[in-house]
Amino acid sequence: MVASPPVEPSADGCEDCLAVGGRWVHLRLCLTCGHVGCCDSSPAKHATAHFRSSGHPMVQSFEPGEEWVWCYADEAIVGVAGLPSRSHS
User: Fold this and answer.
1) Which of 3, 32, 37, 45 is most buried as measured by Cβ atoms within 10 A of its Cβ?
2) Mind listing the pLDDT tens digit for each residue in 24-75?
3) What would the 3-class secondary structure string for 18-77 be?
4) Neighbours of 87 (CB within 10 A)
5) CA distances, 22 to each of 27, 57, 83 (Å)
6) Cα(20)–Cα(42) distance, rounded to whole angstroms?
7) Other C-beta atoms within 10 Å of 63: how many?
8) Whole-model pTM?
9) Rounded CA gap, 43 and 63, in Å?
10) Considering only CA atoms, which of 66, 2, 1, 74 is closest in space to residue 29?
């Protein structure tokens, strides 16, 4: 699969946790709109919640040194050519 033009991350942490003072374990970047949400190991699981509410199926890890992409629709790690390496500060 070839990547679309890169999206801009919505925040440097989980956008939803930041809004309510929550905490997260790892971050995921929605490749459709740039929403940054927390992983399923985090208490609120905002990345999965974003997929369920928006239908945006693909997220990239937003962690330093990780470059994988997950497709919620297929429940699989997928290869995407041309994605920039991304991570929060």
Assistant:
1) 37
2) 999 999 999 999 999 999 999 999 999 999 999 999 999 998 889 999 999 9
3) HHHCCCCCCEEEECCCCCEEECCCCCCCHHHHHHHHHCCCEEEECCCCCCCEEECCCCEE
4) 16
5) 13, 24, 29
6) 14
7) 17
8) 0.89
9) 17
10) 66
